[in-house]
């Protein structure tokens, strides 16, 4: 199957547990692609929702996808600092069509001062019932939420001070 190559333009497809498409990012540039990690960048890319509505991202973003952890991390570069939006999700897969993952509703928003808030707990509980998330999935997701919060506190991976800036510099080289 291979992995996306640096400089390649790809789509990102987010699904729900029941297999329905949730959201599609039309174009992102791969900055690093291995079997363990894919890092991509995008700016002002079109996003299509499951109901067909579209919107365009407002700022440059560096996105971190991990094959071993049940979360992905989006670092958004804004004038007043880097904001992170973290999705509790399945690990990614790459099938030569798109980078794909299952979105499990729980999200963590991290502010430039590294404070954070947990979002969408009610949506998670509703979908857990509607889509019959197995107990084992619930346990994996809760464990990975704890792992993500540990990464935030310890400034690990994408939360390290230079991570987003360094990958954004790489993104600017490929963007032209």
From TrEMBL:
Which EC numbers characterise this protein's activity in its record?
Answer: 3.6.1.15, 3.6.1.6
Give the residues annotated as active site.
Answer: 23
- The keyword Aminoacyl-tRNA synthetase is annotated on this UniProt entry: no
What InterPro entries does this protein's entry cite? Answer: DUF402, FomD-like_sf, Ntdp-like, SA1684
Record: residues binding Mg(2+) 1: 87, 103, 107
Needed cofactors, names only, are: Mg(2+)
Pfam families for this protein: DUF402 (PF04167)
| Record-annotated DUF402 domain positions | 18-156
Q: Where does Mg(2+) 2 bind?
A: 105, 107, 120, 123
Q: Which HAMAP family does the protein's record reference?
A: Ntdp (MF_01568)
The function of this protein is: Has nucleoside phosphatase activity towards nucleoside triphosphates and nucleoside diphosphates.
Regarding protein family, the annotation reads: Belongs to the Ntdp family.
Its protein name is: Nucleoside triphosphate/diphosphate phosphatase
Organism in which the protein naturally occurs: Bacillus suaedaesalsae
